[in-house]
Amino acid sequence: MLTIQNYIGGEFLSPLKNAWLDNYNPATGEVFAKIPDSGPEDVDAAVKAAAAAFPAWSRMPLEQRHDILRAVSDGILANLDRLAEAESLDSGKTVTTARTVDIPRAALNFKFFATALLHFASESHYMPGALSYTLRQPLGVVGGISPWNLPLYLFTWKVAPALAAGNCVVGKPSEVTPLTAYLLGEICRDAGMPAGVFNIVHGLGPRAGEAIVRHPQVKAVSFTGSTRAGAEIARIAAPMFKKLSLELGGKNPNLIFADCDYDKMLETTVRSSFNNQGQICLCGSRIYVERPIYERFRRDFVAQVKAIRVGDPADPGSRLGAVVSRMHFDKVLSYIDLAKEEGGAILCGGHAIEMSGRLAGGWYIAPTVIEGLPLECRTNQEEIFGPVVTIQPFDTDDEALALANGAPYGLSSTVWTNNLSRTQRLAAELQAGIVWVNCWLLRDLRTPFGGVKQSGVGREGGWEAMRFFTETKNVTLAE
Ligand code: NAD
Predict the structure, then answer these.
(1) Sheet holding 470-478: strands in order across?
(2) Residue 311 sits in the same domain as residue 421
(3) Phi, psi (5° rounding) for residue 155?
(4) Residues 205 and 284 in one domain
(5) Which of 255, 261, 295, 435 has its CB surrounded by the most CB atoms within 10 Å?
């Protein structure tokens, strides 16, 4: 049995109260590790270590800070196979997905922000008689709290810009997928990151996570996770006037028009529906298709989804692996039952998959396509976050727009069309932080990333992240 420890002040430590949680392998349903059930006392130790490291880290020459973050990036790539296997073991995603998506992106996050810190600049404003300039200073100790669906990818997406901007960090990965964050501690130490600059506390959201949010010395919290937890964090942090970045849930629409490049659309829509078992906040879960191509799409899409191979995450032949936990497995299946009660027709999937042998206790769900549900029903309004999509025809651009905007979330949307004026109109009127046209999950790390409505507040990525993790101060010099 593996024991995961907190990483505080450059040391791997057991939780102060010696309380532990079980960590499961979703592929088999078995416990393979124990992780700290940390409390406020562990968070306090991590914040103290971070505060002690802050003066030297924030004043370190930029090239030196760059070199350390760049060495972390190189360290992640040097451990690609080990990290990919760990991510798969912990989350149920296929090793192929972890090796080609999650871990390379985690390395890129550090590389990208290592470079960004060398180029980050602030404004100056001249007027006759005075020059004003803006300082952008690191905040001090900041918190980063991340979810289980893209564990190392999203953890590093917060930690890297926070460190690049000169802050010291207390991070908490999801208690469901703590393993790669644990390994990242080792990589940071080996990369020469000074003790206390980056601390990792493991444990439950309402205990360890909330203790980070409540700690008076934590100046900002960057959170990615559910809308429910985001609201709780906002409730605690708002009266303390902390900076908050909240990247929350989604229920993303995918609008498919008859004039699209059909083959590219179909192949991409299968991916955007089911990659990572549908557990990507950007997956399109409500698919709306213009009526002239609806029947063709329905036939071809269902045929391709039926052909998806769900299996052992370690097997390169598996396209999908297990969903992340027993609790999530039950939740997704309960939504499929709800969809049936609401009058939906299951076109394929709609059930758990029973595996044999070593995998018999694992949590596998057949990719599911549902038809015939109205916009207002719970299946089309609530985030399921699993391998489940609904499909529906539409007749006009206005109807497509109303369907797309008719859910409480607003993270991303996808539009498939070759009509330029339609593209421009929809891009302007879709209620979403991100609009993909004729593509999906095509990421440029310089672009702003985030959502509107119940999908969150604030933007990450590029200069947006560097600005979030710094405080602006105006200085005016009279002549
Ligand atoms: P979750 O909200 O349950 O947990 C996310 C993290 O927050 C975990 O580390 C958890 O321990 C912690 N947490 C939970 N309650 C907390 C509290 N009261 N105080 C402080 N921390 C707390 O979410 P999850 O189930 O891990 O992740 C799935 C959710 O994340 C989905 O809703 C998905 O859409 C969302 N997500 C959003 C984005 C985005 O960029 N917008 C990206 C990925 C996932």
Answers:
(1) 124-127, 130-138, 470-478
(2) yes
(3) -65, -45
(4) no
(5) 255
Do 337 and 385 have their domain in common? Answer: yes
**pLDDT band per the 50, 70, 90 thresholds, residue 426:** very high
**What confidence tier does 330 reach under pLDDT thresholds 50, 70, 90?**
very high
Q: Identify the CATH number of the domain in which residue 350 sits.
A: 3.40.309.10
Q: Is any atom of ligand 1 closer than 6 Å to the C-beta of 468?
A: no
383 lines ligand 1 (CB under 6 A): yes
Of all atoms in ligand 1, which is nearest to the CA of residue 176?
26
| Residue at token pair 């002549």 | 479
Query: What is the distance in A from the centroid of ligand 1 to the CA of 229?
Result: 6
The reply to whether 123 belongs to the active site is: no
Provide the pLDDT confidence category of residue 415 given band limits of 50, 70 and 90: very high
Query: How many angstroms separate the CA atoms of 265 and 262, rounded?
Result: 5
pLDDT of residue 175: 98
Name the residue range of residue 444's domain. Answer: 252-452
Q: Are residues 105 and 232 in the same domain?
A: yes
User: In whole angstroms, how far apart are CA 153 and each of 11, 73, 177, 397, 435?
Assistant: 23, 12, 12, 36, 21
Pocket of ligand 1 contains residue 229 by CB under 6 Å: yes
Does the beta carbon of 278 lie inside 6 Å of ligand 1? no
pLDDT (mean) for 324-336: 98
420 C-alpha vs ligand 1 centroid, how far in Å? 37
Residue 9 and residue 28 share a domain: yes
Q: Which of 168, 188, 260, 281 is catalytic?
A: 281
Average pLDDT over every residue of 194-203: 98
- Residue 410, strand partner residues: 452
